[in-house]
Amino acid sequence: MEAASADSFSADGGCDCRFVRYRLSSPPLFVHCCHCRWCQRESGAAFALNALIEAARVTLLAGEVKVIDTPSASGQGQLIARCPRCLVALWSNYSGSGRRVHFVRVGTLDNPDLLPPDIHIFTASKQPWVVLPPGTPAVPEYYDREDHWPADSLARREALLAQPE
């Protein structure tokens, strides 16, 4: 079941072969549409669409993931959780938040329409034919979280970072 309110929000997703199935138990903290060249190369597409959510709010329903340590533009690497059978990337963890925050690939949701981007980032390197929608914030590089995240997401992040990893 998928619903829009935070109290009853649930969104399921998984890989192509359906070996891995997962559920988001709450709305994400924030959704990035990243247009950096690194994301373009890694995804093989014009951008990557990632929903940032607490790892504890992502439940593995079936299968298991294989976590692969890969390089990243920051030089600090990222851990990519992939299906061990079809190798679809389901989420990443970056060094800034460690394993506490998953960057879930929105395209792996059964209904990716649920999570449109809250912001477009690294638009300085976006493909020239990509037209950004009016009304959604867009920044040339990264952004100041305090300026863009909703207050409840900032509070959730603060509580999460206060916990031991």
Describe the protein in words.
This protein is α+β, with helices and mostly antiparallel strands and 165 residues long. The protein has a single domain (11-162), classed as glutathione-dependent formaldehyde- activating enzyme (gfa). It has 3 helices and 10 strands; from the N terminus they run E-E-E-H-E-E-E-E-E-E-E-H-H. It has helices at 37-43, 145-148, 151-162, and strands at 11-14, 21-24, 30-34, 48-54, 58-62, 66-70, 78-82, 89-94, 101-105, 119-121. The strands form 2 sheets. It has a 7-stranded mixed sheet. Strands 1-2-5 form a 3-stranded antiparallel sheet, with no helix packed on it. Strand 7 (78-82) and strand 8 (89-94) form a beta hairpin.
Mean pLDDT over the full residue set: 92
Order of helices and strands: EEEHEEEEEEEHH
Structural class: alpha+beta
The CATH superfamily appears as glutathione-dependent formaldehyde- activating enzyme (gfa)
Percentage of residues assigned to helices: 10-25%
Low-confidence stretches: none
Second rung of CATH, namely the architecture: Alpha-Beta Complex
Number of domains: 1
